[in-house]
Amino acid sequence: MWTCEQKRVEQRRGFCTGEDAxxxxxxxxxxxKLIVSDAALPGPVLTVLPPSSEELKSKxxxxxxxxxxxxxxxxxxxxxxxxxxxxxxxxxGSAQQQxxxxxxxxxxxxxDSCEWENDKVVTCEVSAGGKAASVKIKKSECSE
Length: 144
Description:
It contains two helices and 13 strands; from the N terminus they run βββββαββββββαββ. It is mainly beta. The chain folds into two domains: 1-34, no CATH class; 45-139, Immunoglobulin-like (Sandwich).
């Protein structure tokens, strides 16, 4: 239960705002995430893996973004190709808890192999627990 104590309190979609001297308890609605974390926690550690040469023969290129050491099991993953957000061809798994009590997850982006072959910059951005990280990759920077 979340308690708001301000001058007047108004409930809108499970959030508290307000200005009235009374106390009101607000229960968040279904699907609401409240994440409280330590500001000193580091952001996620990201690794992006390039597509395999075998897969490129099939005219597809799947890149893998591995996010580890996340403070929260709730994360937002965003893929960009040449700074343009991409949602098609994205599959992101659920976060799993690591032995160190932090979280890890994987996200996959499948694009046409020509985008990879044309040396477009692919970016994976992950935000979790109020911390964000991003990593960029392109073909010319990968060893064969």
